Here is the input.
Amino acid sequence: MRTARLSDMKRGWFIGDFTPSLYKTDACEVAVKKYVAGEHEAKHYHLAAEEYTVIISGEVKMFGNVYKAGDIIICERGDATDFTAITDAVNVVVKIPGAKNDKYVMEED
Here is the structure.
């Protein structure tokens, strides 16, 4: 048996082909992301990976829509969105496949 702490991971990512990682693989990436109200991530997209975001707590805005606990947002390849935490929020994010250098940041409108 092993244990680890999420706080020791980089921005919540704990499975994937990066360091640190609890399980190194390029098949997927998994994170638990914590945000404080008002945090924002720039509009971006992925060409190789699909990204699944599960809202565990709080409210967030993606694709111009508000999502809350229990919602699952599927970002298909090429879908572009920014991200804003409306309230403090916790999300689980899964990217399939785990694709290095597959985040393409766009200029804000």
Q: What stands out?
A: DSSP finds no helices and ten strands in the chain. Residues 26-101 form a domain with the Jelly Rolls fold (CATH 2.60.120.10). Strands lie at 13-15, 29-35, 40-45, 50-57, 59-62, 65-68, 72-75, 81-85, 89-96, 104-105.
